[in-house]
Amino acid sequence: MSNNSYFTTSPFLRSQSTNSRSFGKNKYRPESISSNSFSSSSTRRSVLYSTMPSSTTQQQYYSMMSSSSTTNSSDYNRPPSSFHSSSTSDYDGRYQHPILEASASSSDSYHATNNPAIISPRLSPYSRSRMTSPTINTNRDSMYDTRNTYAHDQLQVGDPSASASNTRASIDSNVSVFPLTDEAKQLINATLLETESTFKVIFAGEAIYKPEKGLLNKSKKAYFVLTNNQILFYKNSQKARSEIDMFDQVQKPKKSIDKDRVFLNLSSIYAVHAIITAAYTFRIEYFHPQSSQPQHHIITAVSTEECKQWIQAIRKAVSVHHSRINSVSLSERYIVIDRLTKQSDNLLNSDDIKIYKIMFKEKRFKVGSDTPKEVFLPMILAIGKLSFYFLPVNALDDEYLKMVERDRFGLLSILSIKFENLDDTIVLEVKQVNKNNRQLVFASVFCQEIILSLQRAVDSIFKNSCLFTANVPSDIKNTHIIPFQIPVDPEDEISGRDDEETHRFSTTLRAFTAAMNLNKSRYNYTIVGPPKFKIFKLLPPHEICGTPSTYQKYEILALFKTLQVNNIFVEVCFANCSLEELETWKIQAKQGWTENTTLRDENILANEIHDLLTGLKFLRKLDLTNCSIGKPTSDHPIRRYSALSTVGTVMRAGKTNLSRISFGHNHMSETDLNKLIRGIKEHKKSIKELYLNDCGLEKDMVELVLKTLFEKSPEQVLQLDLSTNVKGGIDLDPTLIQKMIPAFKRLEILRMRGYNLLSMNYDFHLENSHLIELDIGGSKLTSEVISRVCSWIQTPSFLSIETLGLSDCNLNGKNVYDILQSITQSGNRDMHLNLEGNPIMKDVMHLPKLHSSILQGEGPRSVSFARIEWDDSTLREFIDCLRDNQNFTHLNLSDIVMRDTTEISEDTVRMLTSLFERNNCLVELELNLKYSQAPQSPFERSQPKPLISDAIVNSLVGLRHNCTLRQLDISGLNFEDAGALALSRVLKTNRTLQSISIDNNNISIEGYRKLIKVIEENATQVTKIPIPRNDLRFQIRYLAFRIEELIIAENEAQFFLIHTTASDTKKSKKHELEMVIQERRTSELALRNLESVIHSLMVAIGKNSREHEEQNYRNMEFQLQAQNAAQELAIAQVRLQQGRAVSSMSGTNLSAVGVHSRTRNPSSSNASTTSSTNSSFQNLGSISRRDSYQAGSNYAASNLSSPTPYHYQQQQQMEARMYMSRNNIISEEMILHHKPHSHDNNGSGGGHILQSPLTPSMEYPDPYYRQSESSDINFVDDPGFISDFGYADDYEQGLVESTDFIVNHHLEHRKTTSVDHDSIWNEDQLVEKLNRGLYLPPDSRD
After folding, report:
1. Residue predicted with more confidence, 67 or 891
2. Could you tell me which residues come within 8 angstroms of residue 643 by beta carbon, excluding any fewer than 6 positions away?
3. Distance CA 584, CA 107 (A)
4. Checking DSSP bridges between strand 46-48 and strand 201-210, what pairing results, if any?
5. CB half-sphere exposure, 234, CA atoms < 13 A
6. How far apart are CA 1172 and CA 1285, in angstroms?
């Protein structure tokens, strides 16, 4: 007999009796046996005497809760059967016993009417778009090596309708509920007590049994009798009939049975399963009565049908005793809980952790042999909140490690669950990392409860997860499962991500990381926005214990899977995170994590982008800027298309609502662009934002993009970036340039670097534009073009400009002077001017005029002079002008390049020091190096320093008493510990610096310790220092290399000491050895403590930030309290005057104080001021777009103080207005049109990361962008300074949430408040109240 396939059966496995009675048709009803039926079966050696008593078993009680419990289970309704889909992979790994298969063709057979339960998890709702009717494909090629799995070539499936009617005929018609209710448990216990108090014969027959290995390990033949409580054995049937009445079908009181006749107690059995390597044979797993250790009996029946009946009869009888089976001891439970605690996988209630004793099975083959061997090992199965575990019963041994390989598997790694209900065997197919899928086979009498527990755990991760297909018995399929509550991750509590949707996202991500064996702590991301309108942005990973600085492919895959099942995002941003590994990762058969049948593409990234777009129905913006997509590799030097083409494909299919696309700094082929263009043309939505900057587009491709936008709703285009880095620029069709401004009527952001739009060859109508940002850098501007720019600057259209980019435009000093003068004359000085990379100091003759204009404060308040070449004298003169400049608040002097000099003079250093001391206008200053930074080598401690580095370090002393500068960026200077020491001295006395960037400076652990000390003790105002990732990474590499060097030097010195005889040389070498050992120990200590020191620095910064936020909160609270008191005083004075002169004031309009001629409603002073709270908060918290953010610039003014609760509340309201209309319905016109998360303002392809401005729609002048500010409730405010003051009590109690809430609160307060009129007009009471509560703290006020 060949055993390569478990469906291969020998002739002796065929059915021995085609006339046998079906055992399972009336599974739970007593069945009397007539004489005719008995006589027809007289040739058989076993007799079916009775099925189970009519008492209900535990499996039936899953239906009790729906009728007796009032649990709010409606929140977790299971999806209809149409939502159940097949697995994503080609699956035919099926487990079936040969001994149970042979009689499947018989119409009277129990197994012919039982449908196998193949459970296949669909872990993402996005799969519903491709769901088909669940069928079993028996012609698929096998995914698995049948030599190592329980795989089969085919599966015989019976009639589903017959299965539904016969498998659980007695299940109540109501929907079942899991877990069981208390009423159901009580009924089960009552049934168990009734069963234990009676005696009834269920099944009997001859069989051969083989006990476990021992002294007398011989097979024995006996006659077995299955009762409702025990299995009895006799020498023969005559002996059994002499002691037991086999034909009495009435339950009798429990009779006394000789102990020698008791083969097994049913309450000690924990598994009954067939052995697939032996004919007619099955195993009974049980616990020893005295030691409680797992034992087993192997029983061989006389035929396949009899073996099947024995298994079903024992399973059915044991099911009544489930509550008596104590499979896990208390000590084993403690071990399991300890294991789950190490993985943070515990539940809130440890009693909810499901723990079972199971029998793990594995099929093995000897080398060179096709004969399998089935290996059995008892284990403990535990189901946590995110994973399930296979733990050893005893101490770890080689057999256990060989069988399980790893003891933890994520719940979301389950690819399918197979339960045929023929015995207690369950086959779990799980997905593995970098390996083929694996089958985990085990047996347990709690098989159905285990399946439901797994489903419940998955449902708790995200609702309505479709773990079952339609080929599941109705009692499992229709069971209503109530998920448990997963606690909030402590990291989310610390970071503030504790709202319901963010918690659900974090839980799903933790589940996927557990399934892929990843570390969730490496993920770094932000989620902001109102419910159902979240914005997700991926940040660089946390480098924990020397982990890579970029995300690995499985980490990105887990993130994509998590996003796909959380339909709450309107914007997803992967900007500046490389996706190259995912794009070069090919789909592999037999690996469930990589298989995807939705999009027939060869790489994983294309499939994941497809599922992301089709799964997130609210998604409006996808930002893939600088993700290394389409990048040529050694395998594919020329790509025909990339994963970016998937976006166009999905848009053509109409499966997404995407309207904002950012593909900048990737490589787009012509095929990618053509698919995107066709997608834009056939898309149901209009394109509002399109960023294709630096994607390698040629002239015809750029013109094709413009023509497409002109054809498809050009009035909807708000932001457009087609910048290029092509040397010499690109000359476009003049007719296209001429149509841009008239066609794009609502265009706000236009970035066209490298096209020379303002040349005399183009008729570019800037005078008619409404632009907020314009970038025309990379163009060679002549004097005529500069004159044209200056003329446009003085037109009204320039007043809306917030950012003007003129980088790399070959501007000299005179050109810059003219532009600064024109901006001053225009009056729009609250804007950012980018002059990077211009040879301003090239023509020395024009410098005096430029210096004069800077000294006089001409130009905008935010300017960038980055990437400019200087010599020592011109730099000194320029700094001298900046020293007395009273206009610039934001200045960028990054990447200072010195020419014609080898060092910076002391006069220049003194001038820079004087700039730090005397300038009282600068708020933000950047002196970093990004483009001109020399590469670092991890094999040397000292790195090359730029000339400007030492000059900046020596001049930092000027900041000791500076009282205006709040943001300082000195990263990339390589000033080492000397710079850290100078900065720590500055922070001892400086009390205004709040944000400092010091990364890429080669600072060691000692330098960071000095900074930590001064920040904790003195500089408590410092609330922001970005994590020095590059320094940390460099120090770890250098210390590891240095330790290796020192170990080699130490060994050499020891060898020299052993083999030298000269005393002087030996003495010096010994001293050298001591020095090497000391340095090695110091380096090892630094390597161990480096990450903890950086963590301490971040903790100190976080503490300062929280204290600063609390202080701002207290200040705001005190201010609101004072305003409220002043308001009450003003109202009291008006009312007092009104009361004293009612007759004289009749018909008088007190317009000076806002009193209207009307009949007053009696109300208290508190109630009268409630309606003013909203306006006072708006006045306090309203942030002008120009004050808070200069669009398109990283050098613009920003809110430097830490966010207070109020500012956070305002920010949430702003974000809500981004994608929500007033009735909380998505409105494309109300969506905020902001820039992508990353963009550079120069033509070099690098640049600064620009965060999306959260600009409230109320600040747009055009009514199209403005939301209605009018309220549906019209009422006249009480007299007083209603528009100037707020109500402090509402803020203290957390009531101020929105305008609508305040209005409703005002009216409700008016309706429900009853006030004594005398107290209002009593001046003494008012004065006493004001004196008592004017300046008291909130907790002391009455």
Report:
1. 891
2. 579, 583, 601, 603, 605, 606, 609, 629, 630
3. 53
4. antiparallel
5. 16
6. 6
Beta-bridged to residue 372, according to DSSP, are 365
pLDDT value for 651: 94
Q: What is the pLDDT of residue 1219?
A: 42
Using alpha carbons only, give the angle 751, 754, 760 rounded to the nearest 5 degrees: 100
Residue matched to tokens 């060092």: 903
* Separation in Å, CA 1317 to CA 117, 844, 1314: 76, 80, 9
Residue with tokens 């439901």: 452
Look up residue 1245 and give its DSSP letter: S
Q: Identify whether the C-beta of residue 204 lies closer than 8 Å to the C-beta of residue 226.
A: yes
What whole-number distance in Å separates Cα of residue 236 and Cα of residue 1071?
Answer: 92
CA-to-CA distance for 846 and 819, rounded, in angstroms? 14
DSSP-H helix ranges across 159-236: 160-166, 182-196
Whether this model's pTM surpasses 0.70: yes
Comparing 255-269, 325-339, 472-486, 1106-1120, the range with the smallest average pLDDT is 472-486
Give pLDDT tens digits for 1181-1201: 333 333 433 333 333 333 333
pLDDT digits (tens, 9 = 90+) for 983-1039: 999 999 999 999 999 999 999 999 999 999 999 999 999 999 999 999 998 999 899
Cis peptide before 289 (omega within 30 of 0): no
Residue 770 tokens read as: 């409404």
Note every long-range contact of 1147-1150, with CB atoms under 8 Å and residues 24 or more positions apart, other chains counting.
Answer: 1150/1279
Q: In this structure, are residues 118 and 416 in contact, taking their beta carbons and an 8 Å threshold?
A: yes
What is the Cα–Cα distance from 1296 to 807, expressed in whole angstroms? Answer: 45
Cα–Cα dist 1202/1024, whole Å: 9
Give the per-residue pLDDT at 1139.
75
Q: What is the pLDDT of residues 766-801, one digit of tens each?
A: 888 999 999 999 988 888 999 999 999 999 999 999
What's the one-letter identity of residue 872?
A: D
Contact 446, 356 (CB under 8 A): yes
Rounded-to-integer distance, Cα 860 and Cα 828, Å: 7
C-alpha 737/C-alpha 758 separation (Å) is 10
Find, among 1155, 927, 125, the residue nearest to 562 by Cα.
Answer: 125
Cα–Cα dist 160/712, whole Å: 52
Collapsing DSSP to helix, strand or coil, 311 comes out as helix
**pLDDT tens column, 1269-1311:** 333 333 333 333 333 333 333 333 333 334 444 444 444 444 4
Of the candidates 438, 371, 443, 429, which has an alpha carbon nearest to the alpha carbon of residue 403? Answer: 438
Say which DSSP state 1276 is in: P
Would you call 936 helix, strand, or coil by DSSP?
A: coil
> 10 Å Cβ neighbour count for 278?
14
Residue 570, amino acid: V
The encoded tokens of residue 588 equal 């592999």
CB contact at 8 A, 492 and 344: no
Structure tokens at 1328: 């006493």
Query: Residue written as tokens 């008619």?
Result: 768
Q: Which positions ≥6 away from 1151 have C-beta within 8 Å?
A: none
Burial of 277 from C-beta contacts in 10 A (0-12 / 13-18 / 19+): middle
Alpha carbon 392 to its chain's center: 33
Name every residue whose Cβ is closer than 8 Å to that of residue 171 and which is 6 or more positions away in sequence: 60, 63, 474, 475
Nearest of 664, 573, 577 to residue 627 by alpha carbon: 577
What six digits make up the tokens of 917? 């001391």
- Mean model confidence pLDDT for the chain: 75
How far, in Å, CA of 506 to CA of 511, rounded? 9
d(CA 658, CA 1219): 13
pLDDT at 469: 53
- E strands, 581-684, are 621-623, 660-662
Under 8 Å between Cβ of 1289 and 1167:
no
Rounded Cα–Cα distance for residues 1011 and 984 (Å):
6
Q: What is the mean pLDDT of residues 294-303?
A: 92
